[in-house]
Amino acid sequence: MKSPKSKSLDRLFKAKSVVFVGGRDLFVPINEIKRRGFRGNVDVINPKRKEIMGIKCSKSADDLIVSPDAAFIAVPAKNVVNTIRDLKKANCGGVVCYSAGFKETGKDGLYLEKQLLDACGDMPLIGPNCYGFINYLDKLALWPFAHGGFSPGYGAAVITQSGMLSSDILMTQRSLPLSFMVSVGNQAVVSIEDLIEYFSFNNKVKAIGVHIEGIKNIDQFIRASNMAMKIGKPIVALKTGKSKIGKRLTKSHTGSLSGDNDVFAALFEQLGIIEVDNPIQFIETLKFLSLSNPINGKNIIGFTCSGGGATMVADTSDKLGLTFPLFNKRAATNLKEKLPAIATVSNPLDYTTPIWGVPEKTKPVFREAIRSNIFSVAILVQDFPLDGLDESEPMYLNDSYAFTEESKALKVPPVICSTFPENINKEIRENLIKKGAIPMQGIEQCLRAIASAMWFAKKIKTVNVLTQTHIKSEKNKEKNFNEFDGKKYLEKNGIHIPTSQEVNSKKDFFNLAPSFPLSLKFSSPKLLHKTEIGAVKLNIQDKKSLIFEFKKLKKSIDTKFKKGEGKFFVEEMAPTPIAEMFLSLRNDKNFGKILVLGMGGIFAELFKDTSTLILPASRNQLLEGLSKLKIFKVMTGYRNSKKISRIKLLNQLMKVIKLFEDPENKLSYLEINPLFVYEEDIVAIDCVLSTIE
Fold it and tell me: What own/partner pairs with CB < 8 Å and gap ≥ 24 does 393-402 have?
């Protein structure tokens, strides 16, 4: 169900009457709304000019005859608030604020933005410090610069935090079908989350593309993304601000908080959002999703007129886990009869140049190959000739059209992909789209987009809806446990630890509960890495050696720590495990409860083999997270070695997670490293634990 805020955006985005407020900055946007073909009423407010771009100027909003559905403001920042108040009195439906000089400039700008927010009330506003929006469906542009963009009457809705990126996307030569483009700027009133919800309900919006520097409201983002997933609307995310320099620029650019990259990636995956790592993949993935229904399965049929092209397709697909099944015996025999003698029957299939461009020859080949199995997608690799070298173009088009017809007849999405992105020109791309084909530019980009579409189709069926994660910031004191007390806390809650005993003097060694060989440790909340100061001694074989090591360690520790700042204890040496893991649970002020799993022990920081989940997480999500770890191969019987019981491992790990999630326990941080993993059990060898007092 649409929220009231989402409903209020309808009047703004589907405006029938528009007013522009400002001076010389209005010349281009007024020209752009005319060029776009807007047929509604257009007014201009400027108290000093008689007319702008042939439109008579009103002195103020009070003079407007028609209450505008939308306004474009391009006035100095100091005049914005009063302008918005006047527009609100005139019953304006919503505002695009192109003006900059708000929270992105610092403290004074932040105060001005708060005034702007108060002035808007329940009136939606895009910006400030933004380019605005283009509605390709209704020929409406509130946009400050000349713009491009292709729309067949449906397509992707793209939302960006960078105005320049949105402009760059509109200038690309890739024929991305567009329904809307929105540059959100500072998101003072209308946020990315609001727009995701709004566009989810529009049937002409086939996919939603989001460029994210930081998320304003994590909980609202989760709710909006859950709604999109429920409707079946794919979201593609391009997250920037990942590097240290990028994070600094992001903060100065929009005043947004750029979150932890691994947690963002976990958030996207758990919400079923497709994350891409560059703008080109962003466009190609959105293009594919805008022109295709969800892709179930992973079987692909590929065609090329070059052995090299077939190899490139196969090599890239192998890395992405895409499958090109072999032809069955009947299909192979039939294809051999239809192909030239020099052709090799394989998938991808190089049908060779002797029949290239001859539809009466290629059509039967396409038909026989596509109907030989259940395929999710069919791909034809075609690099079209340069403008001016047109004599061979009909041959390429003959194969493209024959391939498209046969694929559509067999209800398999037809993809025509160029090896080099520039080798399909605008006229051919858009003509192919009209005929029902999907023109993709670049083999790797094409196959990655297909893999993402398949992943999304699978996620629709399996995704577990995330609930509210935000934790209110509270200035509570934390109690930090030393290792000995922390592990005793775990043991009390059913998590296995080695047998251990606190020791304070030599007499404690006469009645030892643990058995040799032993480790001797000193643990303090102030000591993160015991090995760095020699606070742990391993494989002690007898009592005499234990007393000697204790005296030596105590003497060293007494020079570094005050009395009562830690504990000495002995502990049985645990048997060699199948694998060593680490497990970290923490409360994040933006994302809620976070779980990180990975390779443990001394290799944790060296290899950084980790998997991140936002809690709550299901057993299936936990298993999926585990399976991404390289060390999981060791745990599941690498080279016929011992292997874990997956069920029992999941049971034990879920026990730890539930302990942390239980609000009555008031745990703020828990790290177990190493966590020894055995065939049917786990044992916490070391831990760091904190509670909120």
Answer: 394/357, 395/356, 395/357, 396/357, 397/428, 398/357, 398/358, 398/359, 398/362, 399/305, 399/356, 399/357, 399/359, 399/362, 400/432, 400/437, 401/359, 401/435, 402/359, 402/362, 402/363, 402/366
pLDDT at 61 (0 to 100): 95
The whole-angstrom separation of Cα 621 and Cα 688 is 25
pLDDT for res 465: 64
Q: CA 570 from chain center: how many Å?
A: 46
Instruction: Render pLDDT for 206-219 as a digit per residue (tens, 0 to 9).
Output: 999 999 988 888 99
pLDDT of residue 600: 84
Q: How far apart are CA 539 and CA 520, in angstroms?
A: 9
Q: Do strands 567-572 and 610-614 pair parallel, antiparallel, or not at all (unpaired)? A: unpaired
Q: In which element (H, E) is residue 540 found?
A: strand 536-540
Mean pLDDT along residues 155-175: 95
Measured from the Cβ of residue 422, the count of other Cβ atoms closer than 10 Å reads 13
What's the confidence (pLDDT) of residue 685? Answer: 95
What's the per-residue H, E or C state across 39-75? CCEEEEECCCCCEECCEEEECCHHHCCCCCCEEEEEC
> What are the tokens at 286?
């959105």
State how far the Cα of 266 lies from the Cα of 263, in Å rounded to an integer.
5
Query: Could you count the other beta carbons within 10 Å of the beta carbon of residue 61?
Result: 23
CA distances from 613 to 260, 374, 406, 674 (A): 12, 34, 44, 19
Residue range 651-677: mean pLDDT, rounded: 95
205 within 8 A of 157, measured Cβ to Cβ: yes
Write the secondary structure of 368-399 as one string of H (helix), E (strand) and C (coil).
Answer: HHHCCCCCCEEEEECCCCCCCCHHHHHHHHHH
Q: Is 591 in contact with 218 (CB distance < 8 Å)?
A: yes
Whole-structure pTM value: 0.90
To 5 degrees, how large is the angle CA 329–CA 335–CA 337?
110
- Residue 250: predicted pLDDT: 46
The pLDDT of residue 603 = 67
First to last CA, the chain: 41
Going from the C-alpha of 205 to that of each of 14, 201, 235, 248, the distances in angstroms are: 14, 8, 11, 34
Residue of 601 and 648 predicted with greater confidence: 648
In this predicted structure, what is the pLDDT of residue 307? 78
Contact 399, 359 (CB under 8 A): yes
Which residue is it, tokens 């566009």? 199
Task: State the Cα–Cα distance between residues 160 and 106, nearest whole angstrom.
Answer: 22
